[in-house]
Amino acid sequence: MSAPYPLVRNLYAFSTRFGVSRSPSRSGSSPRSVSSFLIASCILLFYLPVLAGQSADPDRLYADRANIASARRAAEAWTSALASDPRNFDAAWKLARADYWLGGHAAEPERRGYFEAGIDAGRKAAALQASRPEGPFWIAANMGALAESYGMRQGLKYRKPIKESLETVLRLDPAFMEGSADRALGRWYFKVPRLFGGDRKLSETHLRKSLSYNPDSTVSHFFLGELLDDEGRNAEARAEWQRVLDAPLSRDWAPEDQEFKEKARRLLGK
Questions:
Q1: Do the beta carbons of residue 66 and residue 255 sit within 8 Å?
Q2: 94: how many CB neighbours lie within 10 A of its CB?
Q3: Are residues 66 and 28 in the same domain?
Q4: Residue range(s) defining the domain that contains residue 215
Q5: Res. 226 pLDDT band, cuts 50 70 90
Q6: Do 127 and 80 belong to one domain?
Q7: In the chain, N or C terminus with fewer CB closer than 10 Å?
Q8: What angle do CA 186, 191, 228 make, to 5 degrees?
Q9: How many domains does the chain fold into?
Q10: Residue 77 and residue 58: Cα distance in Å, rounded?
Q11: Contacts with 113 (C-beta within 8 Å, 6 or more apart), sequence order
Q12: Helix ranges restricted to H, the chain
């Protein structure tokens, strides 16, 4: 992490900058050397809290979530913040978001626990501020990951609450996270069997609607490609996956973009 001002390379270099001889006649004998050492120590002590604060910033850590250790530290920081202040809305929804990422990237035995913790954190956020979309969205995201990862029973268990949560987001703020509720509903209508409410036409409608908020969304193009491919519209599907490769990386979602680009590259045989 960068400090507000450049730091010297080491304490030895620091001491020479303040006039201490490289070869004093007697080590530590000069009053000037003692004074310089004290000044150096005080300045270093000033910087230590600054550096510690930067390295522990959970937002900075989460931005580095491609490094799983950073994502864990971010989740731990938000868990601690929520424990200290149960009314901390930002800590609750950001923890739900971090748990969603960890559930998709941690070691297999840990994943389910992260998704379940993410649902719990999302519910806390929704209870704290019912007029905000973050809580219901991350509830739905974590439930959706469980439903896709752990079989039909989980899918049936969470089918209805996922849809209800996403519809809540659409009611509160349809543009939230560049149409993420439409994107997720498009995925829901694609993955859920027709007998339980699945609908390919509605899936395509929602996915295309999400692209109206961000035409470069890698995830929306990828999901739309999967839907089209499943319907036998292979040329259209490949065009969508090519758009994933051509899309610029998002400043906020670069790790996710990179993953969808790699998936699209494999499907296109590139």
A1: yes
A2: 24
A3: no
A4: 202-270
A5: very high
A6: yes
A7: C
A8: 65
A9: 3
A10: 6
A11: none
A12: 11-17, 31-55, 58-63, 68-84, 89-105, 108-128, 134-149, 151-172, 180-191, 200-211, 218-230, 234-246, 254-268
